[in-house]
Specification:
The chain has 93 residues and is mainly α. The protein has helices at 16-28, 33-70, 77-92.
């Protein structure tokens, strides 16, 4: 079974200086200008998305941390046992 890939067209007006720079960079890498531009745009988009995700997770983590400080959970029996073992280990060392 063959899957058909769909494409979309992107057009942009750029200065002649930027066009020359992109053409030179593509030639240096032995790629077509289209391949070079698509690759660069894809990488920039991926970085922007990753940075946005990182910031969003970071803010959520900060909120969770602040909530835990303001209203810490009660110690479970397992946590109490772990603290006792830790104290014994620290006293032995």
């Amino acid at each position: 079974m063959t899957t058909a890939s769909t494409t979309a067209r992107l057009e942009a007006r750029i200065s002649t200086d930027l066009h020359s720079m992109l053409k030179r960079a593509a030639e240096l890498q032995g790629r077509t200008m289209t391949d070079f531009v698509v690759s660069a745009v894809q990488e920039a988009a991926q970085q922007a998305i990753e940075q946005a995700d990182l910031i969003r997770v970071s803010l959520a983590d900060q909120e969770c941390f602040a909530q835990a400080l303001l209203a810490p959970p009660k110690q479970s029996p397992a946590l109490k046992r772990a603290f006792k073992r830790r104290s014994k280990l620290l006293q032995a060392g």
